[in-house]
Write a structure and sequence with these properties.
The chain is mainly alpha-helical. It contains 13 helices and 2 strands. The chain has a two-stranded antiparallel ribbon with strand order 1-2. α5 packs antiparallel against α10 and α10 packs antiparallel against α12. One of its GO terms (molecular function) is G protein-coupled receptor activity. Its main location: membrane.
Length: 342
């Protein structure tokens, strides 16, 4: 751990509680409300579309689970927005209560959905690389059964690593020395530090693992894609040429992976500080810096799920067709309702 003075490395004198409140209002309340609402809507649409397309295909299963995780991210972002709503703040009139509720009821559940989404993005990237590298054997390597088992296993693995953090603390009456009164807060168990450290470690591990896998296989996938679609290969070996559908799917996965990596930058910086900066915790000397960095993670994390929706609409004809059918049904229903009222 970095033992440098927190006043130097954490900008304690510059990052005041008032500045933290501004970041919380803008990022946790405003941005989370907007991005969370959009993310929840588009990902519920994605879940419905992939269910309609059928879960008898490994790619559809992977995107279905990814969409469920992204929908959970959108829902919990709305949870952050509610907790950090100025009206809610006035009601509870205590920022410590606000932190306790968001930390226990929203942050940890959000971490589950976020890591599942990251791991499923990695699975999709690896799966697409295998599809164009071993096209004849890929059905044996990544069939629907294996993909479903992999998705369920990863989900429960992430959930199991977060359970210790829930055991470490719980909401309850806590005496606040500043206010000299008992308020709602985080009641800590004897082994809180060890249990939360365990959860933090594995969540960081899953995030870093996802980033490494996605980076490596995106580079490999791009290289292989360019190799297969190059002019010389098309002339010398027509059998190695990808179909138009496969080309669009590979391009979409590459763009999806790049989007994930770009929007993961705040999380990477956060993990770096958490590992190497002393006091960079919710109750440490660097808590204000911790709060500001964490406020950037959630909006950027969810943006990737919104980007993936528009990539799917633009690059998948089947996905686009089902979305158009859904929109026509909704519009027809509204028109019929309007005519009935008239």
């Amino acid at each position: 751990m970095n033992q440098t003075s927190p006043d130097v490395t954490c900008f304690t004198g510059d990052i005041t509680d008032g500045l933290v409140e501004i970041f919380f209002t803008v990022n946790f309340f405003a941005l989370n409300a907007i991005i969370g609402s959009v993310g929840l809507v588009v990902n519920v649409i994605k879940v419905i579309v992939f269910f309609q397309l059928g879960l008898n295909d490994s790619t559809n299963i992977s995107f279905f689970v990814l969409s469920l995780a992204d929908a959970g991210i959108g829902l919990l972002m709305l949870g952050f927005s509610v907790v950090f709503n100025p009206l809610f703040q006035q009601t509870i009139s205590n920022i410590d209560v606000e932190f306790a509720i968001s930390y226990y009821c929203v942050s940890w559940p959000y971490s589950v959905f976020s890591r599942v989404a990251a791991l499923m993005t990695a699975v999709i990237t690896v799966e697409r690389f295998l599809c164009i590298t071993f096209p004849l054997k890929v059905k044996e390597i990544m069939n629907p059964t294996i993909t479903a088992i992999t998705s369920i296993t990863l989900t429960f693995l992430v959930l199991a690593t977060v359970i210790p953090a829930f055991v470490a603390t719980h909401l309850g009456p806590v005496f606040n020395e500043k206010l000299n009164e008992t308020i709602l807060g985080l009641v800590q168990t004897e082994y809180r530090v060890q249990l939360e450290t365990f959860s933090y470690f594995f969540l960081a591990f899953f995030q870093i693992l996802s980033i490494v896998v996605i980076t490596v296989f995106t580079i490999a996938l791009t290289h292989r894609f360019l190799q297969i679609t190059s002019w010389r290969n098309q002339v010398s070996n027509k059998s190695g040429e990808l179909s138009g559908k496969d080309k669009r799917l590979v391009k979409m996965v590459i763009l999806l992976s790049i989007s994930f990596l770009l929007f993961s930058i705040p999380a990477i910086v956060f993990i770096f500080f958490a590992e190497f900066q002393a006091g960079f915790t919710i109750i440490g000397a660097c808590k204000n810096l911790y709060f500001i960095f964490s406020s950037f993670i959630f909006p950027t994390d969810a943006m990737n799920s919104i980007v993936s929706f528009f990539l799917l609409v633009h690059m998948s004809s089947k996905f686009q067709h089902v979305v158009n059918v859904m929109l026509r049904v909704v519009m027809r229903g509204k028109k019929n309702k309007r005519q009935t009222e008239e």
